[in-house]
Specification:
The structure is a single chain. Helix 2 links the parallel strand 2 and strand 3. Helix content is about 55%, strand content about 10%. Helix 1 packs parallel to helix 6. The chain is of the alpha/beta class. The chain is globular, with a radius of gyration of 25 Å. The protein contains 19 helices and nine strands.
């Protein structure tokens, strides 16, 4: 064993890294791992007993046992730790070796590392990995961006370990520089939106429809067998039926309504604003997590601002559930559309040259936002390199039109009952704004010209105009 050379190395043997490396070993590659935590190294050796996998305790031994060109993947927390690990590796590597950052690094950091390592003739891939610990073990969606020659050298490993849909591996070369981490960031922004939309549907079914947890679980399971089929709907059904070990009730009712976040949703909103691309459903999901953190304030505000329509009867039965399903499906489409539109604009502005059909294809399996809907999205972008926003395509325009009445009714009802549906409402208003041939932004332009002489254009003639208002 001491003299065997290993095909693929992993630094960072937490649950995610360990599972990914065991997946590599499952598929016939000799896999090597290391971690500063001795317990993590021991866990890898125990879990990988009898497999072509091994954990070692030092980076020196780790690097010496890798075949050349060395393929080293990092699954460590994003930020300064990535830089620290890279600096520790550099004296041990040779020109042409490959470093793969598989964490959720910000794309600006990835750009910096890509250029820095290029100067040292070390090939770098900023690689998004989605699917959680289970996905890492059984097959994640993988989004590598950076040095194309590095992709060619690691392609066999990544295609083998990735999730498969109809035999197609859920991995593809994304593009140069930071494109892989950018695409993963937008994936996570869409994930924020979908999660909040499901939460709002759950709230409506519970507070308006009067459904109990088991009934909602059965309904979500039914939805998962239809057009809403997706990983997030599937796990939501499981969450709703889970019993609590500490009480006689369901666990969902004992979970505090404060959601945390790691930053990727916020980054998506920030870059969208920088590029001038509207993603209000993703923005709203980030905002709702922020509002949820003010639990005490919300409790005080609830006493000052009571619900106005407390005497309204609950709406139960299949009709309401069907309306919520239509509203959720509509909102899912819009959320994906916003993310894909952002990718289309970023591809041009940041020179990524993204293959949007390919991105939709690799998101169909392994990742958190995998859904039946992504096959329709893939088909919408197939053969159309100029497509920016998918809502006008044949695949989606009819679907959106069919759901419009239900989503409007559900949002009005939620407003009457004092139930916040910020994400669902933002999806509907995004649609309403884009389908409006004329918006009231002529007033905004008049205001800007009035107080700041910022000029305006006219509808009846060409040119740039300014008015001395009130004179």
């Amino acid at each position: 064993m001491e003299h065997q050379l290993y095909d693929f190395g992993m630094i960072g043997l937490g649950t995610m890294g360990r599972n990914f490396l065991l997946n590599v070993a499952d598929d016939g590659f000799a896999a090597l791992g290391t971690d500063i935590n001795e317990a993590s190294v021991k866990a890898l050796n125990e879990e990988g007993e009898g497999m072509r996998v091994r954990g070692v305790h030092t980076q020196e031994e780790f690097v010496s046992l890798l075949s050349k060109p060395r393929k080293v993947m990092l699954l460590v927390p994003a930020g300064k730790i990535v830089d620290k690990v890279i600096e520790g590796l550099l004296p041990l590597l040779d020109e042409g070796d490959i470093i793969i950052d598989g964490g959720n690094s910000h794309y600006d950091d990835t750009n910096r590392r890509y250029e820095y390592l290029k100067e040292k003739n070390i090939r770098f891939l900023g690689t998004g990995v989605s699917g959680g610990a289970e996905g890492a073990r059984r097959g994640p969606s993988i989004m590598p961006g950076g040095d194309r020659s590095a992709w060619n050298d690691v392609r066999a490993v990544l295609e083998t370990v990735a999730a498969k849909v109809n035999g197609d591996p859920c991995v593809t070369y994304i593009g140069e520089s930071s494109s892989g981490h950018y695409v993963k960031m937008v994936h996570n922004g869409i994930e924020y939106g979908l999660m909040q939309l499901i939460a709002e549907a759950y709230d409506l079914l519970k507070r308006v429809g009067g459904m109990d947890n088991d009934s909602m679980s059965a309904l979500f399971d039914q939805w998962n067998k239809g057009r809403l089929n997706s990983y997030l709907i599937e796990i939501s059904a499981d969450i709703l039926k889970q019993r609590d070990d500490l009480t006689d009730g369901h666990l969902i009712d004992a979970i505090l309504d404060k959601a945390k976040q790691k930053g990727t949703g916020k980054w998506t909103s920030q870059t969208a604003m920088d590029l001038g691309v509207p993603v209000p459903t993703i923005d709203s999901a980030v905002t709702m997590r922020g509002i949820s953190a003010f639990k005490q304030f919300r409790g005080e505000a609830a006493k000052v601002f009571p619900v106005l329509h407390t005497d309204e009867p609950r709406l139960s039965g299949t009709a309401f559930a069907e309306a919520v399903e239509e509203a959720l499906y509509f909102s899912f489409i819009i959320c994906y559309a916003q993310g894909m539109h952002l990718l289309a604009e970023a591809s041009e502005e940041l020179n990524y040259d993204l293959d949007l059909e390919g991105i939709a294809r690799i998101w169909r399996g392994g990742c958190i936002i995998r859904a039946e809907l992504l096959e329709k999205i893939r088909l919408a972008y197939r053969g159309d390199d100029q497509l920016r926003n998918m809502i006008m395509t044949e695949q989606f325009s009819t679907l959106l039109n069919d759901c419009r009445e239900s989503v409007g009714s559900v949002i009005r009802l939620a407003s009457e009952r004092g139930i916040p549906t910020m994400c669902m409402s933002s999806a509907f208003q995004y649609f309403e704004a884009f389908r409006s041939a004329r918006l009231p932004l002529n007033m905004v332009q008049g205001q800007r010209d009035y107080f700041g002489s910022h000029t305006y254009e006219r509808v009846d003639r060409e040119g740039i105009f300014h008015t001395e208002w009130g004179k």
